[in-house]
Amino acid sequence: MAYNSIIVRLEMNHELVNFGEVASTVSKAGGDIRSIDVIRSGQHNSVRDITIHAADDKEREITEALRSLPGIVVVNVSDQTFLAHLGGKIEVAPRQPIKNRDDLSKVYTPGVARVSTAIHENPDKAYSLTIKRNTVAVVTDGTAVLGLGDIGPKAAAPVMEGKAMLFKQLAGVDAFPICLDTKDTEEIIRTIKAISPIFGGINLEDISSPRCFEIERRLDEELDIPVFHDDQHGTAIVVVAGLLNALKVVGKRIEHVRVIVNGIGAAGVSICKMLLAAGVTRLVPVDREGAIVRGGQYDHPMWAWLAEQPQVEAVQGTLQEVIDGADVFIGVSRGNILSADDVSRMAENRIVFAMANPTPEIEPEEALKVVRVFATGRSDYPNQINNVLVFPGMFRGALDCRAKTINEPMKLAAARAIAAVVKAEERHEQYIIPSIFNDQVVPNVRRAVIEAAILTGVARRIPPDFR
Ligand SMILES: NC(=O)c1ccc[n+]([C@@H]2O[C@H](COP(=O)([O-])OP(=O)(O)OC[C@H]3O[C@@H](n4cnc5c(N)ncnc54)[C@H](O)[C@@H]3O)[C@@H](O)[C@H]2O)c1
Ligand SMILES: O=C(O)C[C@H](O)C(=O)O
Ligand SMILES: [Mg+2]
């Protein structure tokens, strides 16, 4: 269950109610008072802001209980999560002040014209003389936003702004959210190509499958800057990192385990591919209609590809049928589609990564009773398996070495680098993946990505610390 803080502004009539009654009402309804601010205090009444920490599903109960107290008027309820979004979460700021005409003539006309001419004569100078060197576009069409589905480009913006914040805070990358009002594959490709000159990389986000595969492939071929669909590869990289460590905890080998991947969309396809590359020999991809089986006929190009892989099982069935005896369940589908009973039919020492956001495939409280290792995509439980462990360091590395593309060796290197942040002596059921606040994650991923880019010949610059 997610917890949140709400601020309730109350007007209290002191003749009818005292604060002790307010506090006990909040506590009985499941809230925890964290702070009280007196906004106005009079002889007969006062106005106070009380900050209450509570489970999401208790908020209504708490405010209703307060409203029913005699002598209390609930003036306003504000949710701190919404407050954190007021006015948007990022801004564009100048890197130097313009204090006088002299400054103005350097950064703007006439001085700027000489710089533009220099770039015209040598387009590579865009990297040293503009923001291209450090700027990534976070591009979505709003069609697969978290697990919320096709909620459109405007509603997708808070997620994209959040990604941009993380890029900057964790890796110093300037990222800009671009929310496109089109779902047409060709139009998306054309638009991204048209805006690409100012960017050093393109992070595709929350674009639904199967269009996301074609969009990424074409852009990667047609642009000379790295293009990375975060939901595919960021997720696959972090899953492989978590799985390598989880398997060590339970003492199983990747070649022996039977793995279910539920939800064969953007994330699921890339996870399946990377698991096969990492050595999985028994794979069961499952989507809404049940298992995708070896030898099956599918219109979806990536499902057809999976059906040709020798490691994919040939036995048909629903998730509830095929889960029996599985060692690992990886969910990148929808919330609440798995029960504790389903999980308890898996093999002993089972590993469950329930990564649908914001609601995991199974409630953590349910799953924790029946699994050995459990992870979600969320920040409010241990073992957060989220692509935020990947994209900041991945782009930091790709930008620093001016990689033309992000290839498979760079991805595998990133997965190993993340897994290696958790030392053998620290590793246990609740700690298979480092926290995003672990300050070794971004530098380790960056280093691994640059090394792999140099070795595979896609780096166009050797960063000073690699010379
Ligand atoms: N934790 C992370 O880092 C992370 C990263 C990427 C995606 N995700 C989550 O994974 C989910 C999928 O994301 P995506 O970008 O791949 O979306 P997507 O729309 O490309 O794919 C979702 C797939 O799940 C399938 N699906 C839906 N309901 C299902 C069910 N009941 N059983 C089996 N399959 C079902 C759909 O048919 C589709 O193929 C979302 O909830 C998203 O938030 C998490
Ligand atoms: O945004 C996230 O938290 C992870 C991922 O990109 C998702 O779509 O769920
Ligand atoms: Mg996403």
Automatic annotation (TrEMBL):
- Please give the superkingdom of this protein's source: Bacteria
The cofactors required by this protein are: Mg(2+); Mn(2+)
Annotated ACT domain residues: 7-80
Entry-linked InterPro entries: ACT_dom (IPR002912), Aminoacid_DH-like_N_sf (IPR046346), Malate_Decarboxylase (IPR051674), Malic_enzyme_CS (IPR015884), Malic_N_dom (IPR012301), Malic_N_dom_sf (IPR037062), Malic_NAD-bd (IPR012302), Malic_NAD-bd_bact_type (IPR045213)
Q: Which UniProt keywords apply?
A: Metal-binding, Oxidoreductase
Query: What family does this chain come from, according to its entry?
Result: Belongs to the malic enzymes family.
- For this entry, the protein name equals NAD-dependent malic enzyme
